[in-house]
Amino acid sequence: MTAIPLQPPRRLVEFTLDGAATRVPEGATLLDACRAAGKDVPTLCEGDTLTPKNACRVCVVEVEGARTLAPACSRAAEPGMSVHTDTERTRHSRRLVLELLASSVDLSTTPRAAAWIVEYGAEPGRFGADAARLNEEPKVDNDLYVRDYDKCILCYKCVDACGEQWQNTFAIAVAGRGFDARIAVEHDAPLTDSACVYCGNCIEVCPTGALSFKSEFDMRAAGTWDESAQSETTTVCAYCGVGCNLTLHVQDNEIVKVTSPHDNPVTHGNLCIKGRFGYQHVQNRD
Amino acid sequence: MDLRFGDSKPTDEERAAVDAVLGPPGSAWEGAEDRDAADLRWARGGRAARGRRDLLLPGLHALNDRVGWVSEGGLDYLCRRLTVPPAEGYGVATFYSMFSVRPRPATVVRVCTDLVCGGAGLCGEVEARLASVPGVGVEASPCLGLCERGPGAVVVRAGPPAVAFPDPAPPRNHGAPPPGPPPVVLRARPQSPDGLAIPAPPAIGERGPGRSPGSGRGGAGEKTHATLTLAPATPDTLTLAALDPETFSSEAPPAPLPQAGQDTLILLRRIGSVDPASLDDYRAHGGYTALRRAFAIGPAEVIREVTDSGLLGRGGAAFPTGRKWQATAARPEQPHYVVCNADESEPGTFKDRVLMEGDPYALVEAMTVAGYAVGAHRGYLYLRGEYPLALQRLEHAIAQARARGLLGDDVLGQGYAFDIEIRRGAGAYICGEETALFNSIEGYRGEPRSKPPFPVEKGLFGGPTAENNVETLVNVLPILTMGAAAYAAIGTEESTGPKLFCVSGSVARPGVYELPFGATLGELLSLAGKPDNLRAVLLGGAAGGFVRADETDIPLTFEGTRAAGTTLGSGVVLAFDDTVPLPRVLLRIAGFFRDESCGQCVPCRVGTVRQEEALHRIVARTGADAADDIALLRDVGRAMREASICGLGQTAWNAVESAIDRLGAYE
Ligand SMILES: Cc1cc2nc3c(=O)[nH]c(=O)nc-3n(C[C@H](O)[C@H](O)[C@H](O)COP(=O)(O)O)c2cc1C
Ligand code: SF4
Ligand code: SF4
Ligand code: SF4
Ligand code: FES
What we know:
The structure holds 2 protein chains of 2 kinds. By secondary structure, chain A is of the alpha+beta class. Chain A folds into 2 domains: 75 residues, Ubiquitin-like (UB roll), CATH 3.10.20.740; 145 residues, 2-Layer Sandwich (Alpha-Beta Plaits), CATH 3.30.70. Chain A has a 5-stranded mixed beta sheet with strand order 2-1-5-3-4, sandwiched between helices. A 3-stranded antiparallel beta sheet of chain A has the order 10-11-12. Chain A is globular and about 65 Å long. Chain B folds into 5 domains: 83 residues, no CATH class; 80 residues, Glutaredoxin (3-Layer(aba) Sandwich), CATH 3.40.30; 211 residues, Rossmann fold; 80 residues, Ubiquitin-like (UB roll), CATH 3.10.20.600; 82 residues, NADH-ubiquinone oxidoreductase 51kDa subunit, iron-sulphur binding domain (de novo design (two linked rop proteins), Up-down Bundle), CATH 1.20.1440.230. Helix content of chain B is 38%, strand content 12%. A 5-stranded mixed beta sheet of chain B has the order 10-9-13-11-12, with helices on both faces. In chain B, α10 runs parallel beside α14. About 9% of the residues of chain B have low confidence. Classes of the chains: A alpha+beta, B alpha/beta. Chains A and B meet through α2 and β7 of A and α5, α6, α21, α22 and α23 of B. Flavin mononucleotide binds next to β8 and α24 of chain B.
């Protein structure tokens, strides 16, 4: 007989969120609480399938009595805390983070960035025309995906997805430090000389489009990428018995990229090279 | 874990360097050159190798020491031995400024261009002189902790002594210092055509079976390299030292303490009078009475004494040491650790170096007391990479203490096991931040962790950890010998005990001063010889704040400086007279933070760059002309302070803000 251990009951934590008494299960983050309460807190480095590194600092909230602001995505709710999510202090830091990011990298393919820039009144241009930028050339060194680190906000999601949180391949890491820190493979080699297995899980989690399908990259360059004209169909990968869910993104009757539903309890959005990139046979019409 | 290694191979020299730290590889899986039959049947390494990841940093040092840089083949071999993904190994190697992943000259002269030394223009001059010398490179360095006798420099020569192997080079010139650039090309090492050093053959007797693996894991067991500190350095001495660090042995003895011999000294009491190499001399000067008392009263009482003494941490954050120890001791998880933060890279700070060089056994004893109190059996001493003399003296002290039963399985015959391991930092100020320091020791990038959890719950290797500054630990000895009450009677109610101050800059007698808490800034400055044309004082170093020359009645206590709207930090008192161009100083401070940011969080990674840019723009502007950029600085500074992950970003705007508000820097 196998005994199935029961989860210990999760205790509830009581605290106040923007003045309202709130209860969340022990271990829940302030962001979880905000989302449950319908509050829209901006996030960039937080991702639904990963433990956030809390590096972007765009989700900061004010915890009464604390000297500094706290990242909502990572700070667990504690009993008796009093948290404010929309104060002059939080708005100031969020505005500055958006300004600092937008002045140094290309956020044009970061969903919601443009709206937040308006919402928080960020003016990235005020650091002047000479403000240091990343100025990285896209790295196109294989036929499957492109690394355009000019768009990278160093959220560490791809590192975590490639490493211990999902893929366990550890092909990429952060190299250098400070403003010169970059995502890199070993010895900063081309991807083809690295440990990368082309599962594409890093592309799945990248919040900025710094990592993208070669197909998407080429179509954007040609001006033919049009998300509004794309349809999405979720199906089951036919290559092996694991049976991962695939979401095919189709434009003009061509598959343009493949993602995977994050809420799948088995794969959480992860695929392997075959499911992610091996779609040409589907549209081989010869 | 699915690791893939490239096909670059280590050179014999690189293999020897890594094996000296890790021992010879056990199987082909671990990188042994020959595959035996057993290797075909089962894989070894795995978890056991992974458990040694903390040897990554010592391994990188070993490669860097022998060949001067970290090559692909060397790094891959080290990573294979430790089962570290090469991408992560590369990420760690590129984090530290003392390592290079590109070929570079075997001899590197690192010249301090920071707040005190920077004005001397030494770096440029030395660069010009050594420009034509192959195999020698010159780099600007942040503060080297030699401020009391600056300008300071460190010469690092990779590889075993050149004289130990047949050298076809012409004899070296030991004559008078060459005037201007040296006329002859002196070949200290065989060179590759592009002027970069090629790895030299190992010294005779250094290779082959039977050579014992390197002694200290982070240490300088064998002669694989030479490191030399020079202060005050001149273009002449630096040129000579760069050409032949081995025979250039004129390392000046540490400057005598300005207060040497005064009988009011407690922390500095032995410095200058005790032989730092002699355990017996240390004991003759009262050494090891504190540890004996600790054993007599037991760990709980030791913590009570430290708590009652009111000791506040001297590393900058002024956290009560007794509370930290109590919290660590009380955690049920095992093992517990003690970590001594001897990274000391805050510009203007050099007190910990003076303590470690002058009285190394005191630190060994104090760490043992701390370990005993918090229930740790292992202590790590994380030492700034640029402190060769402190490294040598502490290694010696630890070895002696071990040999005499003062460290090891049975300390003083009391049945308590404790040992200390030294870890060398590799040029990263951020590694002084307590959690970044844990990551650095563990073989990860020196990026701070987010808190909570705090180190007392989850610190080094995930265990409860008490981390303390050198000066904090050394204070524990008088607490135990004189008793908490007598100790607490020194200083003020809230800031108890004696305090070390690092006085440098425009004063007649720079150096480390010890005063009871409560003395005023003016009193300290008059001891050190205050200049008539004093313009400002930077309190607490680059992360601290400026005060005006007329604010000399500020009491030098944690509460007094707080009340005055500034900070004591780690005890830096850096005086500037009115000849020092303030905008240049501010630019240097901003440049320091930009260089030293780990890059993890946006407010600091980008904010420090924007801060420096704005200061560049207003370097020669004042008043209304500068107003827009000052508003920008305030906006950026506020976000850095409020939203950065760690203290580096949170304090990166302090000094600039205080210069604007208190000194009217741009009015
Ligand atoms: C960026 C940064 C650098 C630091 N550098 C040092 C250092 O070099 N030495 C040190 O003792 N503490 C340093 N600290 C403070 C440590 O994080 C920590 O507070 C201290 O080591 C605790 O010891 P204490 O309680 O004895 O002061 C630094 C903190 C920050 C944020
Ligand atoms: S490449 Fe994308 S996922 Fe990776 S750190 Fe940059 S922004 Fe984040
Ligand atoms: S994505 Fe890969 S693992 Fe998943 S079903 Fe397809 S082939 Fe199998
Ligand atoms: S504040 Fe700066 S140094 Fe600290 S974690 Fe952030 S980027 Fe790194
Ligand atoms: S989303 Fe929380 S810090 Fe990035």
